[in-house]
Amino acid sequence: MGKLIKNHWARLIIITASIYQIAAALEGFFWPKIFWDFITKNLDGAVKPIPVLQIINLLLGIFGLAWELPLRYLAGTMIHRSIEARLVVYPLSVLAAALLYQGTNPALYYLIGMGVYFWGYSEGEVVCSEPWTLPKKGGRARGIV
Predict the structure, then answer these.
(1) What spatial distance separates the first Cα and last Cα of the chain, rounded to whole Å?
(2) What is the mean pLDDT of residues 5-23?
(3) Residue 27, pLDDT score
(4) Which of 49, 83, 104, 125 would be a feasible disulfide site paired with 121, CB 3.0-4.6 Å?
(5) DSSP letters spanning 105-117
(6) Predicted confidence (pLDDT) per residue in 86-137, tens digit
(7) Exposed / middle / buried, residue 54 (Cβ in 10 Å: 0-12, 13-18, 19+)
(8) Nearest to 135 by CA among 45, 7, 38
(9) Cα(68)–Cα(60) distance, rounded to whole angstroms?
């Protein structure tokens, strides 16, 4: 049996969450609703008449998808290889998705993906320069390859 590569698994979870967040944002343009409207109506201004929260979710979903697939010009850069940067940026995606009624599922997927990324980071995993590859032996993987 092989060893579970957590950053590949987390990448698949985050890609799923990003696609779901984009779909939720597009659906939010047609049916604008804040998830927390049963508690307060103060947040309704974020979705109507100007769809600010939907646009933020759409941009964060596209950014997450571009970061995880990654786009050709982003692959191999320091931001692409950084698990720490992912653990800093993805909570913003969680917050934006959790505020939108249609985005509660992607928010949960992002949380699970972040947990798996943290698990991999705590075990010393690294994200390779070339997407979907394994680190080479003798690499700088903080002692674990």
Answers:
(1) 16
(2) 95
(3) 96
(4) 83
(5) HHHHHHHHHHHHH
(6) 999 999 999 999 999 999 999 999 999 999 999 999 999 988 877 778 877 7
(7) buried
(8) 7
(9) 12
Say if residue 144's pLDDT is above 70. Answer: no
Structure tokens at 120: 């991999």
DSSP per-residue string spanning 11-32: HHHHHHHHHHHHHHHHHHHHS-
CB–CB of 62/144 below 8 Å? no
Interior angle at CA 49, CA 23 and CA 34, nearest 5: 50
Cα 50 to the chain's mean position, in Å? Answer: 25
Where do we find the tokens 């799923």? 16
Residue 16 CB neighbours (<10 A): 17
**Radius of gyration from C-alpha coordinates of the chain:** 17
- Give a three-class secondary structure readout of 38-74: HCCCHHHHHCCCCCHHHHHHHHHHHHHHHHHCCCCCC
* Burial state string for 86-120 with b = 16 or more CB within 10 A and e = fewer than 16: beebbeebbebbbbbbbbeebbebbbebbebbeeb
